[in-house]
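Cross-posting from the modeling subforum.

Setting up a comparison between two proteins and wanted a second pair of eyes on the formatting. Protein 1 (sequence, then structure tokens):
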Amino acid sequence: MNNHSERQLRAIQDEYREKISLHNTFEKQQLALVAGVDIAYWTNGETDYGVCCIQVLDYQTKKVVEAVEYVGEVTFPYIPGYLAFRELPLIKEAIKKLTSAPDLYMFDGNGYLHHRNMGIATHASFELEKPTIGVAKTYFKVGNVDFIMPENKKGAYTDIVVDGTIYGRALRTRVDVKPVFLSCGNWIDLDTATEITMYLVEKESRLPVTTRYADLATYEARRMYNNSEGK
């Protein structure tokens, strides 16, 4: 993968892009397990490392039922717009450790809200063959379009529209906090993604518990591995 030219990477994205479906392939009442995915990086000497943490939660109780992590060397460079190629090897190795089978994955990052609609949540869906949602903490401008700040009310949102197409939403998950930037990954519609995200937000954070727990896990894992044995 790291030997591909940017043209080849774009071709891969374009091929997947044609297969994106922003329609539900599941019934929300059938969701049993949802997973949060996050990755953290660090450098030791001239070597880059990454850790992918996955937290699987019971959708009804919001309790963690399984947690796995994978640490490895990162060989794919950081190229804006192609982050999925850097992250997917770590994600796929972490997935192999799961004993449960999540019905839906949520990523700390974008999905359709990407200049070619191929953020990590969307790209990963084709590897995982599961519906996905992207929840990003910051907005990276798409098509020179700024987001409109939603009103200061829980559940308020404004759509991010690029060339007449809704790419995602600026979503206020709690009062008096910054919005998150929500987008479909694949095989889900935006209203359902919004409803699921809001259901999984609790008072401790503006993030849904899935990606919040994954974010906390990567923070701790990076601190531990970065301070031990050169990793």
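Protein 2 (same layout):
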Amino acid sequence: MIAGLLGLALLAGLGYALRWRSNPSPCPYAQRHAINFPRPVITRSRLRDVLQPRSGERLLEVGPGTGYYTGMAAQAIEPSGTLHAVDVQSEMVEHLRTRMRREGTQNVEPIRGDARSLPYPDDAFDAAYLVLVLGEIPDQERALDELERVLKPDGRLVVGESLPDPHFVGFEGLRRRVERRGLAFDARVGTRAGYFVRFDVSPSGEPTDSVE
């Protein structure tokens, strides 16, 4: 009896995951507690190592949610740097604004916006990052175009992915898609099941040396 119920629950969960994967959408605000769980592979310290944020830079975070990585990145670019955090859900934006105010972080600008049409001019940011977000965007290609557009000629893009996220984006396919846009693979940390990867905007269009 118990085994049968567990089997049904597993099938139901699998069916939900498959439907969610075939219909990309952000994590609902009602389920926000799930995105605050520890992330053993895609940790804050690893993101900082790959992103290499520097004081005074202007950074972009796409899909910050409740701000799992936001405070770390904002602190790294103090005192004169600014982090723009763009989320498509107004509830997440307000949650993040409240959290940053409570933590005393003053250099974060939470903004409601769509990754497929970022509200910024060309060459606006030194670096951009998105973690567990790309697969949730209905038009990933357009989002990648937008990220390339708003990055400065010497800018950096970091993407983080990890299973069991139903919207997981594999590294090999992502690398091909990003390199077609003129960004060069620079570094990767993690495993096939969870990783951060960094791409650099190459003004000449030539790839840089990779660092594993």
